[in-house]
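Field reference: sequence -> structure
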Amino acid sequence: MGQGARKLIDQLRMRQDNVKSLGQHFLNNEDVLDKTITLADISGQDHVIEIGPGPGVLTERLLETDCELTAIEIDQGICDFLKHTFPNLNLISGDALREKWPKVNKLVANIPYQISSPLIDITTKMQSIEYVVILVQEEFAERLVVEWEGDKGSLGMCSMLDWESKIEMRVGPHCFTPSPKVNSCLVSMKRLEPPKNSKLTKILIRQAFEQRRKKIRNTLSKAPKRISRVKNWHNKAYRDAFQSIDYPLLDCRPEELEIEDWLDLAGLLEDARAAMG
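Structure field:
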């Protein structure tokens, strides 16, 4: 057994104070760490990436699994601490949203809450990542897994196309040093095989939820900005296809549609475009 969470946090805080702008709230609860490692189900064959390791409370546990571990940390003072504490750690000093990630198959991290959404985008684009266990803010977790009807939004609906996500554990503020003002959740994400037309579906969802109070007939009548990034699509093809389809749910607002409805709409548009040649 290593030093433990509280000792690592105390050692780091003796060297420097927490940086509020980086959202530094360090997990101090061994039970949550136990649950994280159990969920991650790591073997020596895994290559894991950890984002924002901080004082290394999770890093220490990950290294004990004998996996190949890469950590990315933006705080240079913390990087110096980690190099001293874990000399064999493969550490990248920089911004995880800008640095190039190595080819890994798992993401396990207590991630900085302010980068949760863009971090999910990067993770989704990295096809080598098959499984994720992250500790995030409760509100974000609920939107990610769409726990309640009111949580429906572009984040969760788009994630459904790539991930099977689940809230595994709720974590109170007392489990962190210093304590945040919000609750947290431990979330697991297992990659799915994306369905047909998933790229087009995501573009439709994102455009519709930008004006979620409007009927999707109005928000989607204009070609989405990034439609040309979808194979065989461009502005005119989209406008012509949209005008030709008859879909009763166009008179609904975006939160009234289920993921299957969005896929049906994308399929209708694709069929219409293909029929036009």
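Note: DSSP finds eleven helices and nine strands in the chain.
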